Amino acid sequence: MIQANELINQASGGTLHRFIVDNYERGNDADDAAFVTLAVDLHNNGTLDLLGVLTAEALEEAKGFQFFTLQQFYCSAITRLEVEPKPLMVAVSALVTAGGDDGAAYQPNTAYRDWCAAQPDRPTLALALIEAGDADAKDYLSLTLEAGAKLDLRNYMECAIAFVRNAPELRMGALTALSRIESGTAIDLARKALASLGNWS
Question: Does 159 lie in the same domain as 101?
Fold first, then answer.
């Protein structure tokens, strides 16, 4: 069983990414779950910074199957992290970019969407960054709207439709979200969304 002091020491020494690669998916599912839970708890209480581990050097060092071990660890951890949207977006982008052309490279995006949908304030905070023109945030519009729609379908559909009509720089992300949101319980908004899709397809 991995102990807290091991993770703290590895993080302090800048080698936590190697420790994750060497120890995650090396035992049984219960061991892996306990590993993630311990790391998340240490992050959430401020003892270590899990996102800070994902430096360019660490991602360059973890290549091939090792990278996807690291990625899977983070996909399991992300949904439970207590963190602001901005650093999470930066970390998710780094993971996706490092994954290259592999089909599994985009899994961290799903983890971000699930994180965003876990608490009502998260999509609100993420949208505030996007609307303020934050360069790291704008690529997360569709995922944020999709997550928000799981919490408040009508509000986030209306928001997406407004972006399509009034924010050219965000139009594509909003259209992407509208094409993915399950809107069966808001038929009137679904019609508005279809009209938007038709106008800008």
Answer: no
DSSP 53: G
Mark out the alpha helices in 14-106 (DSSP H runs).
16-23, 29-44, 56-61, 65-78, 85-99
Please check whether residue 136 is in contact with residue 90, taking contact to mean a CB–CB distance below 8 angstroms: yes
- The Cα 184–Cα 188 span in angstroms is 9
Distance CA 198, CA 201 (A): 5
- Of the CA atoms within 13 Å of residue 195, those in its CB half-sphere come to 11
Domain carrying residue 147: 120-201
Q: What is the pLDDT along the chain (201 residues), one digit of tens a residue?
A: 899 999 999 999 999 999 999 999 876 789 999 999 999 999 999 999 999 999 999 999 988 888 999 999 999 999 999 999 999 999 999 999 998 876 677 899 999 999 999 999 999 999 999 999 998 899 999 999 999 999 999 899 899 989 988 899 999 999 899 888 887 655 566 666 666 555 554
Same domain, 106 and 126: no
